[in-house]
From TrEMBL:
SMART domains: RES
Name by which UniProt lists this protein: RES family NAD+ phosphorylase
Ranges for domain RES: 9-135
Species assigned in the record: Negadavirga shengliensis
Domain of life: Bacteria
Length: 147
């Protein structure tokens, strides 16, 4: 799920300018709000919105080669991994994954719903071109979610 204006941007430049839980400033990571389900991707968007703002979102269904997804479980992270603001150690973990370039994708636990996962895409990985957008559609945002 992404803001409509960023739907064709595969550079990860927004994440480089505005780093998140898993990347440092200056490091591009694509589709920071990617999730294994539509619901967790939506929640990731909502928690970063000002109150009463209904975003214009596009829903992308993507395909990532199975052999190019690394997984980090909560048990591999420090006890405070889900705190806000995020502990610096997480951006170090993410940076190591980005720099190692062993996989295109990194599946990480969601700090919002711990039983869900998010997927980060390393647009600097040589195999990034194998990630495919299978479908793109406008997402109908129910305004009751902004109450």
């Amino acid at each position: 799920m992404t803001k409509g204006k960023h739907v064709h941007d595969s550079s990860g430049i927004d994440a480089a300018q505005y780093p998140g839980r898993w990347n440092r400033k200056g490091t591009p990571v694509l589709l920071l709000y990617t999730g294994k389900t539509i619901e967790i991707a939506l929640l990731k968007n909502i928690v970063h919105l000002p109150p009463m703002i209904a975003p214009k979102l596009d829903l992308l269904t993507i395909e990532i080669p199975d052999d190019s997804i690394a997984v980090i479980s909560p048990s591999e992270l420090p006890a405070n991994w889900s705190h806000y603001p995020a502990p610096t150690v997480l951006s170090e973990v993410g940076q190591k994954w980005i720099d190692d370039r062993k996989t295109v994708a990194l599946q990480v636990p969601s700090s919002i719903i711990h039983s869900s996962t998010n997927v980060l895409l390393n647009c600097l990985h040589p195999g990034y071109g194998e990630v495919r957008v299978l479908r793109q559609e406008k997402f109908r945002f129910d305004s009751r979610l902004m109450k």
